[in-house]
Amino acid sequence: EGSAIATAVAETVAAAALACAFVAAGRPSTQQIGDTSEEPIDLKALAPCAQFAALTLARTASLQVFLAACTNSVGSAGGSQDLAAHHILRSLYTLLSFATDALAIAAQQLVASAETDAERRLVAKRLLGIWGIGIGAIFAAFLAFAADPVVGAIDADHSVRDLAVPRVRGILAPLQILSSFVFVADGVLQGNRAFLFEAKAMAFSTLVAAVALYSLPLLPAWSSNDPATILDVAWTSVCVLQAARALTFAFWWWSSP
């Protein structure tokens, strides 16, 4: 409850600050005070913005539905300790995703500001390599070496730590390289105004990952009586999701002019 209140307060303050910035930007300058004429708002000009926002919302919704399905699977097939370990992994994944999402926003701006297609492609290559793979490798190394103290700072229960730490090192850490790459790839897509492709790619990727989530437990190698196996299934499915996102981006990259 305290976390929810803190989140609501933070978002309210941020919204108020943004509203104040908009109001200040909309005030007429001293040179314009005598001019009371106002240009009518062209609603047609806002249509692309609304369309792109709707596509981005659909992309985010499909991702969140899949992650909720992972949590539901762990809660249904695992025990309370498995669910606690899953929430630790998801918290770390979400925290680092905020950082990589910031890279995506920067990539979107840098790609969009390029003047030619050739320049956009050159900028995108540098972003994907240096920012995408490079930052992901740094995050991966951090989780690999600091998994024990980081998990311990979140949950002191030894049984939960025994479940979470190996999976932070073995799954979540290497996943950062792929996740960072696909977040920057999202920025490249948005910088090229490929919002429709991005939404379709996410829908396809979540569908593939959902198939993995519900089919892996049926395979002999994954049909263990150990409840903790569902943790491996859930986070392997997240890896499948990110791999599918990378492959769909690669398809766009090589098929686009």
Name the shape in a single word. globular
Nearest-angstrom radius of gyration? 22 Å
Largest sheet: none
Count up the helices.
7
Topology order in helix (H) and strand (E) letters: HHHHHHH
- Which residue ranges are poorly predicted, with pLDDT under 50 across at least 5 consecutive positions? 29-34
Question: Percentage of helical residues?
Answer: over 70%
Distance between the termini: 50 Å
> Structural class given helices, strands, pairing?
mainly alpha
Question: What is the residue-mean pLDDT, rounded to a whole number?
Answer: 85
Q: Work out the number of β strands.
A: 0
Strand content: under 5%
Report on this structure.
With 257 residues, the protein is mainly alpha-helical. It contains seven helices and no strands. The longest helix has 38 residues, at 117-154. It is globular and about 55 Å long. It starts with a helix and ends with a helix.
Keywords:
257 residues; mainly alpha; single chain
Concise description?
The chain is an all-alpha fold. The protein contains seven helices and no strands.
Secondary-structure blueprint:
Blueprint: H1 2-26, H2 43-77, H3 80-112, H4 117-154, H5 158-191, H6 195-215, H7 229-255
Helix pairs in contact: 2-6, 2-7, 3-4, 3-5, 4-5, 5-7, 6-7
